[in-house]
Amino acid sequence: MDQHETALEIEPQGRDGGSQVLARQSHGNEEKKKMGAYECHCFPSENGNGNATGGWRSSGLLLANQGLATLAFFGVGVNLVLFLTRVLSQDNAGAANSVSKWTGTVYLCSLIGAFLSDSYWGRYLTCAIFQVILVLGLLLLSLSSWLFLIKPEGCGDRVTLCTPVSTAGLRIFYSAIYLVAFGYGGHQPTLATFGADQFDETHPKEKSSKGLFFSYFYFALNVGSIFSNTILVYFEDTGKWTLGFLVSTGSAVLALVIFLGGSSGYRYVKPFGNPLPRIAQVFVAAFRKWDVIVPENGHGLYEVEGSQSAIKGSRKILHSNELVFLDKAATVIESDMKVHNPHPWKLCTVTQVEEAKCVIKMIPIWLCTIIYSVIFTQMASLFVEQGDIMNRKIGKFEMPAASMSIFDIFSVLIFTELYRHFIVPIAGRLTGNPKGLTELRRMAIGLLIGMTAMIAAGITEIARLKRVTPDEKASSLSIFWQSPQYILVGASEIFMYVGQLEFFNGQAPDGIKSFGSSLCMASISLGNYVSSMLVNMVMEITTRGGNPGWIPENLNAGRLDRFFFLIAGLTAVDFVIYVFCARWYKSINVDNNDEVINGEEMQKK
Question: Which helix (DSSP H) or strand (DSSP E) does residue 562 occupy?
Answer without folding.
Answer: helix 560-584
